[in-house]
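To make this tangible, this section ends with a sequence with its structure tokens:
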Amino acid sequence: MSPELSQKLAAAVDGMPAFPKSVQRILDLTRDVNSTPKDLVEVIDKDPVVTVKVLKVVNSAYYSLPKQITSIGHAVVYLGFNTIKNLALSIAAIGMLPKDNAAGFDVDQYLLHSLATAGIAKQLALRTDNADPMDCFIAGLLHDFGKVVFAQFMPQEFKAALDVSKNSAGSLHSAMHEAIGVDHVIVGAMLAEKWRFAPHLIETIRHQHVSDLKDTDMIACVFAGNQISKKLKFGFGGNPCFDEFPPQIQKRLGGDMDAVIGSLGDLNALFDEAQLFASL
């Protein structure tokens, strides 16, 4: 990477907003094995924006709860600690997305793809020894966030890469290396560092290409969630290609992509939930 490009990327990452303090606190809670639902309720109650949006989702027709939920405490009781954490983090990530961008990057489709990847990665974590489902959800949600940085701060270069990928039906990250000299995983990892994420989260966002995979349970879950989401065409993150599972992924998850998809059963509920979260 040239010094000029490195400087440009650093400036772009610096231009991205910080995670809200409430969400940073929620991230801290996800890493604390001693955290309780009460801790989560106290954090969300102090953020009126997150509170309103969480209650909007909880009271939607999707969950069809028997009565109107008016407090975060009751929301946690009805939907569970982890669902409310996932929802709060999703709200924060969605709040950082630009409404428009000069690259022509479809943020709504990107968001659906990211939420689907997060949901699948979380499910896959349950069949591994060392991947935490909550961490896999976070990494899946943010695995492509570097694209958002490019769409906002290097839109013309990113548009050129999107066009090349679309017209050639080739991978977006290859097109980005041609057009820009670097791809979104590098910038995504830089952003995760700025947000003070745990090292294993940064590592997972950084290593998502077959040519550069590290062999960990968490990377396997997020990589697989990403490829499955692309193959099933739930949302679209700008890349028309998906990769079959390399041997180390198959070994960790118990089979090739088709076998893993089959073992996940009906994914419609997961996709419906992703659409619900994306509607915020």
User: Anything to note?
Assistant: Residues 157 and 180 are 6 Å apart (CA to CA). The mean pLDDT is 92. The longest helix spans residues 107-125. The radius of gyration is 18 Å.
